[in-house]
Amino acid sequence: MAKDLVRTRNYVTRFIEMKTHLNAVSLKMQTVKSHDAMATAMKGVTKALTQMNKKINLPGLQKIMAEFMKENEKADITAEMIGDTLDDAMEEEGTEEEEERIVGQVLDELGVNMGQEMGAVPMSSVGGAQQEAKADEAQDNTVSDLEARLANLK
Fold first, then answer.
1. Going by C-beta distance under 8 Å and a sequence separation of 6 or more, which residues neighbour residue 106?
2. Tell me: the pLDDT tens digits for 49-108?
3. 138: which of 17, 54, 75, 106 is 20 to 30 A away, CA to CA?
4. pTM reported for the whole predicted model
5. d(CA 11, CA 2)
6. Angle 11-17-20 (CA atoms, 0-180°, nearest 5)?
């Protein structure tokens, strides 16, 4: 009877080990199947990308993008001009004075007196005339660029 008990326990242990080994083999088979499915999918994606790359005309796409950028810039300039025109047309008389009055109120609340504070600031700096000339030249260049763009729009 003791021999049967020991033999039965050994059989139970062997069956548990075999079950564990079978589960491990099953998991490995599932892993291999998953890898195969992934490889097949990647193969299909590679074929699709290859065909797509053959059909894309890169120079044509670059040309389309350049045209889009050009037209988008024209639209931005036009929108800016329309906005400026509307702002000028809708501007009421006295708005500048009202703006200055509001700025003055805010500065008064902050305790800043513009006349006294600004009087202490020197009006010309070293090389001020040169800097002013450069600023005027840069502004003239900007204005001429904008005028050229406007002429292209017309």
1. none
2. 999 988 888 888 899 999 999 999 999 999 999 988 887 777 766 677 788 888 888 888
3. 75
4. 0.36
5. 14
6. 140
